[in-house]
Amino acid sequence: MSIWDGELALLLSGVFGILIVASVIGGILAYRYSGEKSNPTIDNLNARIRAWWVMCIICVLAVVIGNIGVVILFALISFFALREFITLTPTRRSDHEALFWCFFVFIPLQYVLVGVEWYGLFSIFVPVFVFLFLPTRIALAGDTVHFLERTAKIQWGMLVTVFCLSHVPALLMLNIEGYQGENVKLLLFLIVITQISDVLQYVFGKLLGKRPIVPKLSPNKTVEGFVGGILTSVLIGICLYWVTPFSWWAAGLMSLAITLMGFVGGLCMSAIKRDSGIKDFGAIIEGHGGMLDRIDSLCFAAPIFFHLTRYFYT
Predict the structure, then answer these.
(1) In this structure, what is the dihedral angle of CA atoms 94, 127, 259, 247, given to the nearest 10 degrees?
(2) Which residues cross the membrane (predicted)?
(3) Same domain for 73 and 18
(4) Which is nearest to 259 in space by CA: 182, 188, 195?
(5) What is the pLDDT of residues 206-250, one digit of tens each?
(6) Partner of 33 at 20 to 30 A CA spacing, among 16, 64, 71, 171?
């Protein structure tokens, strides 16, 4: 069955329709304030919209190429995200060979396992083999200064940016009865719900937010933004149940799991940034910051969504 059916076309039409509306609104606001002093909020809004266009087009092109295109795309995302993470958490010269293995051996191998659909090894390769290899290789370098801290940082980076994120393309390997050949829609469902939840929590927080959830960590994350964003995203997930193998109520529960884990992911990665005294992990994506700033929610949501789907639907 071809993935390019009416359901996928309708889903993508909706995504790009939202982008068109956002672009028009951003253009009107920019024109309205064009004669005045530059408005940072409007400038940032339009920068974010432009970046969303680029990200969505790249995602669609990967889907057009097929499963291999999706796997390569997320392998590249993992590479850049790990690079940002390692840059933020400086290592020592004696760690460089271990990092070489991470970037040029372990990332490709993890995604090859996804590509060949070897679930048994894919699911344990990083948390078992890589996690045991890294402290061994670092210890062999003979540098004991902050050994545990250095090892833990690299392991955490591999866990979040490689192992967790690789569960997104791994959705393509699931064999769901009556849903064969349509898994890319499940992947897009995960991405859409995760990202729209981030956007809606931000919007509700700006419009209604008064009570920060964790003031010292992320004052912009408010109770009102959290509740409004989560509930609205769950409703959107229910409305999109037709692109999934789920019933409408199961799609709602899956959306709830995705949004809650996405929120936790953003919170945990914010803690790392605050501890390091920075606002963003990088500046690779205009208006959004770094690669890791954009996928932090997805990194935490993907493995939970993958295993819930695999357990209940395969």
Answers:
(1) 150
(2) 9-31, 51-77, 98-116, 122-142, 154-174, 186-204, 225-243, 249-272
(3) no
(4) 195
(5) 788 788 888 888 777 889 999 999 999 999 999 999 999 999 999
(6) 16
Q: Are residues 150 and 271 in the same domain?
A: yes
User: Are residues 236 and 191 both part of a single domain?
Assistant: yes
Q: How many CB atoms are closer than 10 A to CB 179? A: 17
Q: Give the Cα separation of 74 and 198 in Å (integer).
A: 20
Query: Do 44 and 16 fall within a single domain?
Result: yes
How far is 137 from 97, CA to CA, in rounded Å? 8
Domain encompassing residue 88: 67-313
117: closest CA among 166, 65, 161? 166
Looking at the structure, tell me whether residues 146 and 51 fall in a common domain: no
213-242 as b/e, with b when 16 or more CB fall inside 10 Å? beeeebeebbebbbebbbebbbebbbebbe
Q: Residue 10 has which token pair?
A: 């309708």
Contact 47, 41 (CB under 8 A): no
Contact 73, 191 (CB under 8 A): no
The number of domains in the chain is 2
Check if the beta carbon of residue 273 is closer than 8 Å to that of residue 280: yes
Q: Tell me the pLDDT tens digit for each residue of 30-40.
A: 777 665 566 67
Do 248 and 297 have their domain in common? yes
Residue finishing a domain among 65, 93, 114: 65
142-190 pLDDT, tens digit per residue, is: 999 999 999 999 999 999 999 999 999 999 999 999 898 899 999 999 9
Q: Are residues 155 and 61 part of one domain?
A: no
